[in-house]
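Can you please make up a protein's amino acid sequence together with its fold in token form to help me picture the idea?
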Amino acid sequence: MFDLKKISFFKELSREQEEKIAALLQKIEVEAGVPFIKEGEFGTEMFILISGRVKVVKQMLKPEVAEKIPFLQETEKVLAVLEGKDFPVLGEVALVDSDKRSATIYTLTPCVFLKLSQKNFFHLIQSEPELGLKIVLNIAKNLAFRLRKANDDVIKLTTALALVLHKKNNLKEEV
């Protein structure tokens, strides 16, 4: 059995709780160069990368907008490159809602993931509420971290835009 204590979501679990989670996880092997999770598709699983490397890619424009800008060369941005040695958790939002994926995950090398389905997660919450709560709290902590980072990024982007617009207006005034 894989040592789940290596994964931040499961560090605080007892041996018994770890065994219950392990019974719900499915090991998935994926070849290199595959869009493993696709932005915009509906998903109901969370994945933990335990081996290999992936990149997280986000569309910068909605497709209907991008197609109206023919000179645009790139419409997506690489947000991160993640490695299995860090055991990143991907798609955890899908455990609590069945909405569209917010990014695409491409495998850069052959990868091994552990998959937890929403169905198994809901079963766990019903049968083991204390254990389910621990995982929900870890999901909330992870999402809070990402929200804070997104807020920081928005501030940086709006500040940069304000500086560019200010400089542009100053140049117009000088002419």
Observations:
- The two ends are 71 Å apart (CA to CA).
- The longest strand covers residues 76-83.
